[in-house]
Amino acid sequence: MDLTPNDEQVSFISATAKWCADNLPLDGARSRPPALWQQLEAMGWTGMTAPGMDLDHATEALVLAELGRHLAPIALLSTAVTARWAGQPGKTALALLDKDLTGGLVRVFDAPGATHALGLVGGLAAITPLPSDLGGEPGLDLTVPLAHLDPAPPFSPIGGPDAGLHLQLLAAAFAVGCADAARDMAAEYAKLREQFDRPIGWFQALKHICSDSAVRCEVARSQLYYAAGALDAGDPGAAFHIAAAKQLADQAALENARANVQVHGGIGMTDEAAPHLCLKRAHLLSFIAPVRRDILLGEAA
């Protein structure tokens, strides 16, 4: 399998990176413009692999990783899945559910403007209608509004096992992007911050931290590319490859985000600095479509 992006995919990545640089700056992550979602829809990112779009999962993963680098709205993940497997128009929020849907609390992320929410139930993607007045308050990830439904409404499965794999793949792509963002932020700060009349990046201990972050990104990205290709090819081992991609991406995002806070020193612990945004996004992504241990160990039936 050739994991090198082709010319068309490189064009998608370049166009996405340029648009995000202009419209999704990290320093504005907590106060995104109200029209942002309409802009994302106009760019076609809310349903790239929906019927009629004819884009493969590999291209989608490349683009979502770039969007994840800029901490794009988390509902892009759930909206893309419902567009592909349920033909659901409009915005779909992301739900985190208990395994047993007979009751309990459901956390709904990025609900404003959404008509439905999507979550995983026993590995299967499922959706439910949302109340029209469901809003949200700041939660773990300060860029994502959080609302609650208690008790859980009824959810309807969509798309079979592949829909759940699709969500896990896209969450892995977002995590790879988050790891990239933390790596870049740490490296840039290491070039600018000076101690003893030289940039702190000159010191070997900081070089090692930044180098390890870069290695984690490349490992996670390579597995993401392979997993996306396996899903496109209908590989019977796609579930394992996607689980491995999610595991490596979550690890890279969390460890790079922590390293970024460390590189920033005292300022990295403050709310007005940006490193904590990557760390909180990484934690949130680790709860989305989490990896099953039996799949990673090759014990799944």
From TrEMBL:
Domain (Acyl-CoA dehydrogenase/oxidase N-terminal): give its ranges: 7-79
Per UniProt, the keywords (alphabetical) are: FAD, Flavoprotein, Oxidoreductase
InterPro entries, sorted: AcylCo_DH-like_C, AcylCo_DH/oxidase_C, AcylCoA_DH/ox_N, AcylCoA_DH/ox_N_sf, AcylCoA_DH/oxidase_NM_dom_sf
Cofactor entry: FAD
Acyl-CoA dehydrogenase/oxidase C-terminal domain residues are 170-285
The Gene Ontology terms for molecular function here are: acyl-CoA dehydrogenase activity; flavin adenine dinucleotide binding
Q: Does the keyword Flavoprotein apply?
A: yes
Q: Which domain of life is it from?
A: Bacteria
Q: Which family does it belong to?
A: Belongs to the acyl-CoA dehydrogenase family.
Protein name stated in the entry: Acyl-CoA dehydrogenase
Species of the source: Novosphingobium arvoryzae
